Amino acid sequence: MGCGLCEVHCIVAHSKTKDIVKAYNKESPKPISRVRREISKPVSFAIQCRHCEDAPCVTACLAGAMTKDVATGEVSHNKDKCMGCWTCVMVCPYGAIKMDKENKVVAKCDLCQGQIEPACVANCPNQALLFIEVKR
Amino acid sequence: MAKYVIVGASAAGVGAVEAIRAVDPTGTITIITEEACAYYSRPMISDLVSGKADLQKMKCKTDDFFAKCGTEVLINKQVTVLNIADKTLTLEDGGIVSYEKLLLATGGKPFVPKMEGQEKDGVFTFTTLSDAQRLAAKIDSVNARSAVVIGAGLIGISVTEALVKRGLKVTVVELQEKILSLLLDPKASDIVEAVIRKAGVNFATGQSVQKIFGRPENDAAVGGVVLTKGETVPCDLVVVAIGVIPRTELVAGTLVKTNRGIVVDNTLQTSVPDVYASGDVAEAFDFILNMNRLLPLWPLAVEEGRVAGSNMAGKKATYGGGTNMSSLKYFGIPIVSIGNANPKADDTTVEVMVKLDAENNVYKKLVLKNNIIVGMTMVNCIERAGVFFNLMKKQINVKKFKLGLLSDDFGLAVLPRSLQRKMSVIQ
């Protein structure tokens, strides 16, 4: 549908207050959505980190901030290590890495650690987003 | 005797350790570095000077990384001789290390041209952790207020930003007429230069430093420079950031073939079997220029190290190539520039697409050859740069959606459905 609720709920999930209105309008620094709605009618879809098998962002990271968990396959980003050089942004084939310019680091999908399923999936009104385990 | 020996413990060397371990869990690995710290982020040394990062932040791997992958690390060790017939390395302290497979990841060293006064106290290069530590200490000890940076490339601009953050007045001297000229076209260069000037930096382009002079009270300490056009610039520090030259000295006089750097094939093996080279010292493949050449860039060094490591451990891997590619964060203006972003004006084989929003310093440029993207620059609008880079790397014909490429809402959805599948956007 291209409704953009995935972006809204991603922002809330990554906010301090977890309150939809405050997260969207008041929080500073502003929480960043790690999912992007791509629209070119009639096509629309949501793009977030694909946790690539051979992730270009992990190879390219100048700071050791982007790592691939061999066991789970998750690509995760450590903002405390990040130097904000944007090299991962340059190489991500999906354009799935967002720039948090206020904090001078990148932000990407962390699969909503600790939740049953990511906020974008849980709140997609059309069940267009699915969270499933892929056997390798 | 170690099965695998790696000289150099930076991007390429550590990339190789990881790749070797992915294939061979037990073969012994020794990695040798002349530095006191194995594996830190070289690109982050400017953050050390500015005070934004400490050594712990700069470490790219956890402290137990080498122990976990069963790798012996020799720090503060200089390798002086490579003996190919015996398959040994001689260390400066007389120690001998023998190998079955060797990786030369010796990197580059700063190029410092002959200049009068270059031996004075207060002249620095800027590539290693110890360079940064010494520079930071000097700024404190002499309470430095001003600096001259020679060279307006990546390193020069990064150190300039760090010095500005430390409150120094900086003059950047650049031989070319434009800054970042190896990366940017004149338009993009002008945009960045204006932003950096606003931060209080002076530029002296189209010239170099003819001499460094001393202080009235102490001739041995830097007091300023005289530029080739005659101008005198007083300063407390000089940072030479002209470029790096590959450290090929270990292979001089051996059978390992060199050009400007060490010549390698697409498995990163040198002309001598069992001897590999990666990173700033190696001439690896450039997929845009379709030739091997020096490309001293961190991400490429990691990738090359991985390919070399895999081959050393017996799992065949081929290097797909890199190209001149950098992302810049300096002075708050994000830039990505890749490949042939600055073709000659009379090059009729390429098509150039440009979009400029001068008011907001937004500039996009694509260079196409036969409808394949071969170069790009994005200033202040880099968030989807990777999508373009992927089109470039996969050499996708963009003819069908060419008009949409520079639009503000260009993204994956704009690509034809068949291409979305090809680029694994949708399953």
How does this structure look, described?
The complex is a heterodimer of chains A (136) and B (427). Chain A has two domains: 1-48 and 114-136, no CATH class; 51-108, Alpha-Beta Plaits (2-Layer Sandwich). Helices cover 21% and strands 16% of the residues of chain A. Chain A is built from five helices and six strands, in the order ααββαββαββα. In chain A, a hairpin with a 2-residue loop joins β1 (36-40) and β2. The mean pLDDT of chain A is 91. Chain B folds into three domains: 2-108 and 245-312, FAD/NAD(P)-binding domain (3-Layer(bba) Sandwich); 112-240, 3-Layer(bba) Sandwich (FAD/NAD(P)-binding domain), CATH 3.50.50.60; 334-422, Enolase-like, domain 1 (2-Layer Sandwich). Helix content of chain B is 22%, strand content 28%. The mean pLDDT of chain B is 95. The chains are: A alpha+beta (136), B alpha/beta (427).
Q: What is the topology?
A:
The complex is a heterodimer of chains A (136) and B (427).
Chain A: H1 5-13, H2 20-25, E1 36-40, E2 43-47, H3 56-60, E3 66-68, E4 75-77, H4 87-91, E5 98-100, E6 105-107, H5 119-122
Antiparallel strand pairs in A: 1-2, 3-4, 5-6
Chain B: E1 2-7, H1 11-23, E2 29-32, H2 45-50, H3 55-58, H4 65-68, E3 71-74, E4 79-83, E5 88-91, E6 96-104, E7 108-110, E8 123-125, H5 129-141, E9 146-150, H6 154-165, E10 169-174, H7 186-198, E11 202-205, E12 209-214, E13 222-227, E14 232-234, E15 237-240, E16 244-246, E17 262-263, E18 275-277, E19 282-286, E20 291-294, H8 298-312, E21 325-328, E22 335-339, E23 351-357, E24 362-369, E25 372-379, H9 385-393, H10 417-422
Parallel strand pairs in B: 1-2, 1-6, 2-3, 6-18, 8-15, 9-10, 9-15, 10-11, 17-19
Antiparallel strand pairs in B: 4-5, 5-6, 7-16, 12-13, 13-14, 19-20, 21-22, 22-25, 23-24, 24-25
Helix pairs in contact in B: 1-8
